[in-house]
Each structure stands twice: as structure tokens, then as C-alpha cells.
Design a protein that fits this description.
Bound molecules: calcium ion
CATH superfamily of the largest domain: Carboxypeptidase-like, regulatory domain
Helix content: 10-25%
CATH architecture of the largest domain: Sandwich
Structural class: alpha+beta
Number of domains: 2
Oligomer: single chain
Number of strands: 17
Distance between the termini: 60 Å
Length: about 260
């Protein structure tokens, strides 16, 4: 019985283990797929036939599973709320920085098709953004062709790249910060001379910065609530008048998400 168990263990040893959110991989009938908050683990008994099929937008692998990480996106953008004049502050909770040194906050990276209805092809809900605006995101190899990059952050306005960008290379680069028009609809703000950031204040994530965001903030503003919470727009670990200052201009302008 023990030997049979060991054989089964060795049969499922070809595993993949990733530290980021990934989509469900190819899993044979003899395999399985598990997720926790931070990790995904998939196991399978390898299939003997491996083929790769390509179309304009998709790459399909059969046989042995193939995971995220074959392609890298070098991304740069700034969050208006955390921007301090030269770079971004680290987001705090009541005990200090929430993320390791050099990381400002996390965000959601989405890749969307270039044509209507702009289907979402891939999402990483736990991408990390460095204080200097850089982020290196692993992407699956099946993303090919030209696609939009879409940014979501817990208290900023959803922002799209100005146009679809090529995913033909294994290394893809896109920098939102250099020109306002790097965001679709010029939906950014100049936060320092020649430096542009995505817009702060959509705390309820409904695609507009308006009075409802202020209403949502009100109780924590009154209480001066401490913590890593969406109403702390400047990321200093407390909800107070400085966060009102941050939202004020975008509230007045009634900024809204602009998409293709
Ligand atoms: Ca809103
Ligand atoms: Ca604050």
C-alpha cells in the first residue's frame, strides 16, 4: 500500500507554484487546481501529446500545463493620492508600511481586447507598484496581438492605455507617466512638471468621483479612522482632512472613467 502511495506521489510531482494570482491552467482529469489567498497550485499527470495553436489573439497549448510567467510587462504609472512631488509614499496602516520596502501599494492589472466589446483577457488582482512608479507584471504566453492595459486601484479612477499595445514580444513596456495622452481620453493629471498620475477619489469604484464618494468617506473622516482603508487617499494610515484635500479637485471636476 505504501509503495502504491509513493508511486502516486511521484506521478503528480510535475507541479507549478506561483506567488501571484493566476488563471486556472490546463488540468487533466488526473490533476487538480487549488488556490489560497496568496498562492495557486496545480498538479496534473502529463499528457504525452503537446501542440501549440496560434490565432491573432490567442495561443492554445495542449498537453503538459504551461503557466503564467512566460511574458513580462514593464509598466509605469503614478497614483495621484500617494504622489509626494517626486515619487509615491508607501501606503500605511496604523502600524506603518503595509508592503515591503520600496513598494507603494498593490493594484489590479487587466488586459483587454482591442476591439468591441473589449473582452477582458487576463487579470492580476495583486500586482505590486513600486514607489518609483515601476511595476513588473508576469503575463501568460497566450496573450498575443494588440491589447489595452487597464489599471484599477482601490481608491483611484479606472484608467485605460491610450491605445492597444503590442503583445508580440515576451517583454512589453508601457509608461503612463510621461504624457497625459498615455491614458485613454487624457484621463490623468499633471502632478509635477511633465509627470502624470491616474486620478484619485473613486473610493466606491463606480467610475466617477462625485458626492457619493464623499458620503462613503464621511464616517471614517469624522472618526479619524486608522488603517489600510480605501478612504485614506494619501496612504498615511489615517482618514482625515488631508484626504479631503486630495479628493477636492477631482470632486469639483466630476472626473469619470473614460474607456474605448
Ligand atoms: Ca465614485
Ligand atoms: Ca490620509
Amino acid at each position: 500500500m505504501k509503495n502504491i502511495f509513493l508511486k502516486i506521489v511521484f506521478m503528480i510531482l510535475p507541479v507549478s507554484f506561483y506567488g501571484q494570482n493566476i488563471t486556472s491552467l490546463v488540468v487533466s482529469s488526473a490533476g487538480d487546481f487549488y488556490t489560497t489567498t496568496n498562492y495557486s497550485l496545480s498538479v496534473t499527470v502529463g499528457e504525452p501529446i503537446i501542440e501549440t495553436y496560434n490565432s491573432e489573439l490567442y495561443k492554445l497549448n495542449t498537453g503538459f500545463q504551461q503557466g503564467v510567467g512566460n511574458r513580462k510587462l514593464n509598466l509605469k504609472f503614478y497614483l495621484e493620492g500617494l504622489f509626494n512631488g517626486t515619487e509615491m509614499n508607501q501606503a500605511f496602516d496604523d502600524a506603518g508600511p503595509v508592503f515591503p520596502m520600496g513598494i507603494a501599494d498593490k493594484f489590479q492589472l487587466t488586459v483587454a481586447k482591442s476591439n468591441t466589446p473589449y473582452d477582458l483577457l487576463y487579470t492580476d488582482t495583486n500586482a505590486l507598484l513600486n514607489s518609483n512608479g515601476n511595476s513588473l507584471v508576469s503575463l501568460p504566453a497566450y496573450l498575443t496581438g494588440n491589447n489595452y492595459i487597464v489599471l484599477h486601484h482601490r481608491n483611484h479612477l479606472e484608467t485605460w492605455s491610450s491605445s492597444p499595445i503590442s503583445f508580440a514580444s515576451d517583454t512589453i513596456s508601457y509608461n503612463f507617466t510621461t504624457v497625459v495622452s498615455k491614458a485613454y481620453g487624457d484621463n490623468q493629471k499633471e502632478v509635477a512638471p511633465g509627470i502624470f498620475a491616474i486620478l484619485v477619489g473613486d473610493v466606491n469604484q463606480d467610475g466617477v468621483v462625485d458626492i457619493s464618494d464623499l458620503v462613503a468617506m464621511d464616517a471614517d473622516l469624522t472618526n479619524g479612522t486608522l488603517g489600510y482603508i480605501v478612504y485614506d487617499l494619501n496612504g498615511d494610515g489615517v482618514v482625515d482632512i488631508s484626504d479631503l484635500v486630495k479628493i477636492d479637485e477631482n470632486l469639483t471636476n466630476g472626473v469619470v472613467v473614460i474607456t474605448p
